[in-house]
Amino acid sequence: MSDSLDIIEIAGKLKESLLKRELIIVIGLFEVYYEGRASSTLGLGERMLIIKSDHSILVHRPTGYEPVNWQPPNSKIDVKIVEGKLIIEARRTRPAEILTVKFLEVYHYSSFKLRDEAEFQMYATEEDMKKAILLSPSLIEEGFKPIEDERKIHPSGFIDIFGVDSSGRLTVIEIKRKNVTSEDIRQLVHYVESVERELGVRPRAIIVAPSIQKSATRKLTLYGVEFKCISPKKCLEILKKAKGLGLFTF
Amino acid sequence: MSDSLDIIEIAGKLKESLLKRELIIVIGLFEVYYEGRASSTLGLGERMLIIKSDHSILVHRPTGYEPVNWQPPNSKIDVKIVEGKLIIEARRTRPAEILTVKFLEVYHYSSFKLRDEAEFQMYATEEDMKKAILLSPSLIEEGFKPIEDERKIHPSGFIDIFGVDSSGRLTVIEIKRKNVTSEDIRQLVHYVESVERELGVRPRAIIVAPSIQKSATRKLTLYGVEFKCISPKKCLEILKKAKGLGLFTF
Q1: What CATH architecture is A7-112?
Q2: pLDDT in the model for residue B1
Q3: pLDDT of residue A38
Q4: Domain ranges of chain B
Q5: Which residues pair with B65 in a beta bridge?
Q6: Which of B37, B47, B247 lies nearest to residue A66, judging by beta carbons?
Q7: Which of A49, A186, B106, B168 has CB 3.0 to 4.6 Å from B5, enough for a Cys bridge?
Q8: Mean pLDDT over each residue of chain B, to the nearest integer
């Protein structure tokens, strides 16, 4: 990169965009210093600074999906020019920290007033669903107690959750995060038969999923399998409540 | 936002920039779908898509410092136009997942070939330094054994680490991530005196930090305090080795 913009002009635009609470993108040659709970320095390089409308701030290098530096919303952002460098400071008081970006060159500046009110919907994995059921076994039914998860089936396969119901009957649980198919039911019946061969009793079989195909519904009675409707979303809520998870941890 | 760019033209630019491994920024009105280990949908809204030179990909809404969707480097990225929409798909095979971005409108497109080879240096917090010492007590000296961290001092204060040395002598450790001052030494002596009042023996006192002020050095002998040079960087390396931490977890 080479063509450089006028730093005084950019400083003016920045102040204006910050006041208007726009999304701001600045590309240029800059250094970054962070001082707070920890501290960090990033030498001169060509990269991207993003300031969002809530005054959260991100520094992104040309590679890697994680920002190299960032500050959460409501940072106090100051813009100034010192010795020919454009300096952007983002401060927070609790914890006391300051992120300082020093531009030697600005190659690109743009700002946008964006409108985004869409809902973000996240659906859990089968692994998440299993964790939620192990955490709250009453999701299956009152009195259900898990004994084992990922129980090995001979010669092949794994039972998602193996447990006993309130009447003490062994129960095999298969979890799907999508529409149950006839093939899923056949697989569960195969697990049931393996358990019967191994332990001498035929267990109850429950398939857990948010929905089931019409053709598969007919197979339920035929094979003596029960369907329990549990959505991945519900499971995710249980996990979030239990762990206080942030989205980025998924 | 309103002024819309020609989608066919943008699709062409995108393909070219992807081949050239540029950093790409696209702002517009779009939906996002993710399907993989979990799944998510994000309805129509005005936001920012970033594709980096390593083909990692980020979707950022106008607020919040976390991306709403993202894919790590080396995603396989396809660009196409279907029913007048610009569609960008980022796929990975292990785990099998696909992120689909559907643009109804594009307001801004820019791409940059950036050069960023600077070193990122991160220095630990006092809390991190304490964790590293608890993990590797020989950082203090051979045979040092921590007994308690954050030991309450009456009437006020906390000892960072309370332990015994190889000769069985009680030891009080104070940790600083910066230059030790005379005031830090006075505080440590105050802790030592509290312990002496409480337990009837005067403990050894060690102040741990990367450096010490000249004036504070003189106080060391005066008050019988030892200085142990340990850098926050060294502590961070120990923690990283132990936990395989990513930067974003700090």
Answers
A1: Distorted Sandwich (2.70)
A2: 59
A3: 80
A4: 7-112, 126-243
A5: none
A6: B247
A7: B106
A8: 91
